[in-house]
Amino acid sequence: MKILAMAVLALTLSGTAARAADPRYPNWPCTQAKVPEISLAAVWAGPALDDAETKWKNDAKVTALVAKLSARKTSIEDAEKSVKDFLAASSADKSANAKLLFAGLFDTLNAQRSQVMSGLERVSRKQREAADKIREETIQLQTLQGATPRDEAKVEALGNDLIWKTRIFEDRNKVVRFVCEVPTTIDQRLFALGRVIQQEME
User: Fold this and answer.
1) How far apart are CA 193 and CA 80, in angstroms?
2) pLDDT per residue over 113-150, tens digit each?
3) Are 71 and 185 within 8 A, CB to CB?
4) Angle at CA 193, nearest 5°, toward 188 and 199?
5) Is the pLDDT of residue 14 over 70?
6) Do 162 and 52 touch, CB atoms closer than 8 A?
7) pLDDT-derived band of residue 201, with 50, 70 and 90 as boundaries?
8) 197: closest CA among 52, 58, 116, 79?
C-alpha cells in the first residue's frame, strides 16, 4: 500500500505540472509564464545600442567583465560596483563602453536563459515518460498482488523498482521547482545592471 501511495503521489505531482503548463509550450513545467526571450525594450531605456550589439565581443575588457557580471556566483552588489568602477575609468569613452557592456550582458544573459529553459523542458519530457512508466508498473503490481497464487518474489522486485523510480521522480520535481526560479533571477540581474549602466551614463 505504501508503494502504491508513493506512485499515486508522483502521478499527482505530474498531473499538477501538466495542468500548470502554458498550452503554447506543452513541455514547460513551471508555474511562471514562459517568456522565450527578454526584449531589449523591457530592460533598456538608454540610447540605441547601434553596432555595440555586434562589436562588444571584440573588446577584451568588456568580454571579461561581461563574463564576471553574468556569473550567478557574482553577487548583484559586487556586479553593480564593477559596472560603476569600469565606467568611471572609461572617461571620454564612457557612453561607447556603456553600450558595449550592456550589449554583452543582454546577449549573454539571454543565452543563459535559453539554456536553462531548454534544460527544464528536457527534464519535463523525461518526467512525463517517467510518470507513464510508474503508472504502468503500478498497474502491473496491482495485478501481481491480486494473483492466485501470488508470486511474492515478483511482487517484492517490482515494488522495490517502483519505490526507486518514484523517489527519482520526486527528487527531479524538487529540482525543477528550484530551477524554475532561475530565468526570473536572470531577468532581475539584467534589469538591475542595465539600470546602473544607464545611471552611470547620465
Assistant:
1) 6
2) 999 999 999 999 999 899 888 888 888 888 888 888 88
3) no
4) 130
5) no
6) no
7) confident
8) 79
The Cα 80–Cα 153 span in angstroms is 62
Written as nine digits, the cell of 67 is 563574463
Residue (of 180, 193, 191) closest to 68 by Cα position: 193
Half-sphere exposure of 55 (CA within 13 A, CB side): 9
Contact 167, 8 (CB under 8 A): no
Q: What is the pTM (predicted TM-score) of this model?
A: 0.80
- The residue assigned the cell 543563459 is 112
Return the C-alpha cell found at 188. Answer: 532581475
How many whole angstroms separate alpha carbon 144 and alpha carbon 141? 5
What does the alpha-carbon distance between residue 63 and residue 69 come to, in Å, rounded to a whole number? 10
CB atoms within 10 A of CB 130: 19
